[in-house]
Design brief:
single chain; alpha+beta
Length: 325
């Protein structure tokens, strides 16, 4: 398997958000990629400038950051041709790698706009090198800039940042310095093309956690009624386990619970409600091993939420009483 380490640059509507094309808020104007073998040796590179078709002027921030002119881009390839060349160059046995998750999402959004999304079947498993850098060198939660990573590892800055091929090379340099086991155990799943049926749903069990990505539901309430979503199960022994803290939501997007397995200890669950482009909802659910201190932290979150809700009800009742005087 080869690694395709890629980076994109894009433009946005120069006239403000209210005049942007809702189907394509970000138009790709540059693709850069480096192909690595399993030993992280460079096998080749890919680079294309893209001729803009949606936004015919460059946003001032894009021009400021990238230093590109419209005249430069007008000599580029059309996206329709460039992306087909890119995917052909990638080959058959490969895994995408990028700094963060946005590039892969925007690649698919641009492909969908041009009717090419069937060339790249999803959901797509990939390596988020930004996340891997945090797992290897920091706390696993922080998300740093690419330049920060280069400075942290004392990698020589031989080219300017914010050019697709340059940033792809820098990302590849960082990937090559990350332990192979960290890479293998921490792949990511892009769900721009989320599961559409029960058969397409994703179940992944890795070291220390389980991830489940559901099909679509009409509403959040319908999703939470689904047994597979609301259930708590120990991913190590497969047994259904008793919840110590039932699912609760802080902001209607994220739900939390705590369960206990007699053999493996505390488990913490998190459900993230995701809105698909068609307006329906799907769920990304993770179950992880947890320490007692983490269980206590989640219980405190729930108790704080309960107190706030009680206070709001009390204040609403008081206002109603005053209005009726």
């Amino acid at each position: 398997m080869n690694y395709i380490v890629f980076d994109l640059e894009w433009n946005q509507c120069p006239y403000g958000k209210d005049r942007e094309n809702p189907r394509l808020p970000f138009e790709i104007i540059e693709i850069g990629a480096v192909k690595l073998d399993e030993e992280k040796n460079v096998l080749g590179e890919f680079h294309r400038l893209i001729h803009p078709m949606v936004y015919k002027r460059i946003h001032y921030r894009t021009k400021e950051i990238l230093g590109m002119s419209m005249k430069m881009l007008e000599s580029g390839d059309f996206f329709y041709d460039a992306v087909k060349d890119f995917l052909e160059w990638c080959g058959e046995d490969y895994r995408f790698c990028s700094w963060g998750s946005m590039d892969l999402t925007e690649l698919q959004r641009n492909m969908k706009y041009y009717g090419l999304l069937d060339l790249l079947k999803g959901p797509i498993r990939y390596y988020d090198v930004q996340k891997l850098f945090s797992m290897e060198y920091e706390d696993g939660k922080s998300r740093r800039s690419l330049e920060y990573g280069i400075d942290y590892l004392n990698i020589a800055k031989t080219r300017d940042f914010h050019h697709a091929l340059t940033d792809a090379y820098y990302t590849a340099d960082i990937l090559a310095r990350i332990d192979e086991e960290v890479i293998r155990m921490n792949d990511s799943i892009d769900c721009y093309q989320n599961p559409q049926s029960r058969e397409e749903e994703i179940h992944v069990i890795s070291e220390g956690y389980e991830k489940y990505i559901s099909r679509e539901f009409e509403s959040k309430e319908d999703a939470m009624k689904e047994r597979e979503i609301s259930a708590s199960r120990c991913f190590l022994c497969g047994k259904n386990v008793r919840k110590k803290i039932r699912w609760f939501s802080i902001n209607s997007k994220n739900y939390y619970c705590v369960a206990y397995c007699g053999k493996h200890g505390y488990l913490k669950g998190k459900i993230r409600m995701k809105k698909a482009e068609d307006g329906k909802f799907y769920v990304v659910k993770t179950i992880k091993l947890a320490g007692e201190d983490e269980a206590v932290e989640i219980r405190e979150k729930r108790d704080i939420l309960k107190r706030k809700r009680r206070q709001k009800k009390k204040e609403a009742k008081q206002r109603l009483t005053i209005d009726n005087l």
